[in-house]
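Z., the sequence and structure:
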Amino acid sequence: MFLALIAYLVYFNVYRKEEFLNSSYNSRQNNYAERVVRGSILSSDGQELARTEMSDGESGIRVYPYGRMFAHVVGYTGKGNSGLESAYNYTLMESHINPLEQLKNDFTEVKDPGDNLVTTLDTRLTQAAYDALGDYKGAVVVLEPDTGRVLVDVSKPTFDPNTIEEDWESLNADSQSGVFLNRALQGQYPPGSTFKIVTALAYLREYGTLDGFSFECTGELEAGNYTIHCAGGGVHGSEDFYSAFANSCNTAFSSIGLSLDKKRFNTLAESLNLNGRLDLELPSSRSRFSVDETTADALMMQTSIGQGNTLVTPMEMAVIVSAIANDGEMMKPYFVDRVENSEGAKVKEFNPSPLGSVMSKEEAATLTELMKGVVQNGTGSSLSDLGYNIAGKTGSAEHGDNSEPTHSWFVGFSNADDPDLVVVVIAESAGSGSSVAVPVARAVFQAYYENR
């Protein structure tokens, strides 16, 4: 019993230390606030995303220079905490300045400056994504595929954290917009045709090659009493796998779905973290995928084109696409590079963390070629003039009743032979992926390369 008690105390003080220190119910935080000025939150390019401005030497006002743009990811204080303000609450209230300086401050009753968070977020890319998304509800996620560093986490609609206390009642009275929802991490959407990436991988793994596949698209495919149509009533004619993917042919991929082993399809999807929740610093929702041996043909047809019961977060799609861009290695997304004291000395550093190899290099290379075809010859062709060798996939996801416009999706990465960044865009009820999401992604790619 004594050894068990020791083990529990070690577990509590080592593995769950930050969880309890960051809890808003922990009264120790009040003691820190009495003697420490809350540290700043900085972007990767050195811009202040949150800082404390002192007044009358005692109380401090939390200021967010970028206002609404970083509201969901940076968060707020005042009405509790959210975002990184909450996840690193204790860290921002610690001070690692020189001990002699701390001693001097104790004697003179001056508060110590708290430690600063240096995030992975890029202000220039975030500004481009925020502006390009415009008035649409939705989200933009940008990752470095080989590290998992989150460069952009934009969610709309948003709010101004500078006026959170004044606006609290009106924001909470708005039950329709979901203004506090970080759609990049917590929004659950049907993936539409972006899911054809997963279906293509399932086919490749089951049959070993894409060679020899052929399909005659007549614009519709019937199985039992259910019929799938190609988008806009299109008829693609004779297709191989590459052209079916580039054309985002619903009937071809519904046919592929019917040919797959259901159990292996489900196993593959779960290996890509579908049906799981990413263990991130910030709250995230669980994706949903369900196929088993009892799944009816109609549902298999829908599932294979990203409809049916499948729901994903934009971050989930970003992680899958990052694995393709990173030769099959899936990296865990993270938001903070390091913690520094007020003088810039490093206190703690966060390193990339692999989630595991989810596909072979050869499979990743094949999927990359499929996605390059979408930009060169298919639904993402409006990106082909940029010269960044973009690989991507568009999606138009049906939701609610059929009278509503589809969600607009784009997922992809640039410099396909040595990928630089992954971009995922969703615009709710905005129409086709090529008409809305692709132009948003274009603005992000252009912002990234314009000064390189």
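Residues 66 and 353 are 29 Å apart (CA to CA). The chain is about 35% helix and 20% strand.

Let me know what you think.
H.
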